[in-house]
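Structure in, sequence out. Go:
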């Protein structure tokens, strides 16, 4: 079996195996080590020897046996009875042994809930989710977030310890707790996607490995909860946004605003699937924030050209979003939509309300939007100042280059030039 196919299968099975081992035997950190060793053994053996009849059962069996070895080794090192008593070997549990037939139950959703435990910070939730559910190695996660591997290792280790100390049982939460925790799960997946699609720092505008992983994990949640409209809305939002990925940068990796993009490069399959998902979700009742954002993305993607974008409808959708959230990024995008629907002065007036909001006042995007709207209004001198200020505040190198280029164009221009706004990134709900 080709190695690439084995790798894809192992990535799909990784959270199921870890979830099954944790559910049966506990010991989250030790179970993860055991599961990783089982996955490594499979990666070495299966390409040469072929797949076992039941790959998932094979992995769970190997992981459980390795967990037994790990716990026995720990017991050998710890002689005190109180320490020994705190560990329970797999064969001492009432659950079926790992080498007995396993069920087809998928513990991935429970594992996601555990990784998004409310005692963890969002950064720790993201790291632990990518490690335990996404199957990414610690070095891969560290590279994705441009962090030293040692720092990421400590973050993940602390997250595991917090989960262990919380004593949370390995089961799906019920009632209001389940709804709250599902919200945390979706938020983490959304943040992973955002960081991949619009990197907050570093030399690249986007990191496809993160967006792909966020979409894969969200598809998994959608399969497990097919009737949840917000899960469908989030998947739709990701697909509709990621559909524009190939058109967002030029050959020199320069940022290309949405209005200037070659729409022939947009992923028609993603758009069709996303539109179908959000259409079905919106029919189920009062829409949540992910559904509303997906509806906005659908209007952008379905417009034959930038000039034919339905800005009045997009404005109305942002107003609906603002009624459900006080997030300043929604208000910022609403200002852009107002400017496109009713003229730059309407957008600039809306921006005045955000000037003193500490959550966004120092963000480069506020200055970038002001620059765009001032340029639309013909005030090139003020627009140039705002572009330069936005460039100074931006952490992403492609964004810095784009903003400096806009400022330079205005400095050298004689005739008014209509700029292109870039509503091409999902709104930050954090």
């Amino acid at each position: 079996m080709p190695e690439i196919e084995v790798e894809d299968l192992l990535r799909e099975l990784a959270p199921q195996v870890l979830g099954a081992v944790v559910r049966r035997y506990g010991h989250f950190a030790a179970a993860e080590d055991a599961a990783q060793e089982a996955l490594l053994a499979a990666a070495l053996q299966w390409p040469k020897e072929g797949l076992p009849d039941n790959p998932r059962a094979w992995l769970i069996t190997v992981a459980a046996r390795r967990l037994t070895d790990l716990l026995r080794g720990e017991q050998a090192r710890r002689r005190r009875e109180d320490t020994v008593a705190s560990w329970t070997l797999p064969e001492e549990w009432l659950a079926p042994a790992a080498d007995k037939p396993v069920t087809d139950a998928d513990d991935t959703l429970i594992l996601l809930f555990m990784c998004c435990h409310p005692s963890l910070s969002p950064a720790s939730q993201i790291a632990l989710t990518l490690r335990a559910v996404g199957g990414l190695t610690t070095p891969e996660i560290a590279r994705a977030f441009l962090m030293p591997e040692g720092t990421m290792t400590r973050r993940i280790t602390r997250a595991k310890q917090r989960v262990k100390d919380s004593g949370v049982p390995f089961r799906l939460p019920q009632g209001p707790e389940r709804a709250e925790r599902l919200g945390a799960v979706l938020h983490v997946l959304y943040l992973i996607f955002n960081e991949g699609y619009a990197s907050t720092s570093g030399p690249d505008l986007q990191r496809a490995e993160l967006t792909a992983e966020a979409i894969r994990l969200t598809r998994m949640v959608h399969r497990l909860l097919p009737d949840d409209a917000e899960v469908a809305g989030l998947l739709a939002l990701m697909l509709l946004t990621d559909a524009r990925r190939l058109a967002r940068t030029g050959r020199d990796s320069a940022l290309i605003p949405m209005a200037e993009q070659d729409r022939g490069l947009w992923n028609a399959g993603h758009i069709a699937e996303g539109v179908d998902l959000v259409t079905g979700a919106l029919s189920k009742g009062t829409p949540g924030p992910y559904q509303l954002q997906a509806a906005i993305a659908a209007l952008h993607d379905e417009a034959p050209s930038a000039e034919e974008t339905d800005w009045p409808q997009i404005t109305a959708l942002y107003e609906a979003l603002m009624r459900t959230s006080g997030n300043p990024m929604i208000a910022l995008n609403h200002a852009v939509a107002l400017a496109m629907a009713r003229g730059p002065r309407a957008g600039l007036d809306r921006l005045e309300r955000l000037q003193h909001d500490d959550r966004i006042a120092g963000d480069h995007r506020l200055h970038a939007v002001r620059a765009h709207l001032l340029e639309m209004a013909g005030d090139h001198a003020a627009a140039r100042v705002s572009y330069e200020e936005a460039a100074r505040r931006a952490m992403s190198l492609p964004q810095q280059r784009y903003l400096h280029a806009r400022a330079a164009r205005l400095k050298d221009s004689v005739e008014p030039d209509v700029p292109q706004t870039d509503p091409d990134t999902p709104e930050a709900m954090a």
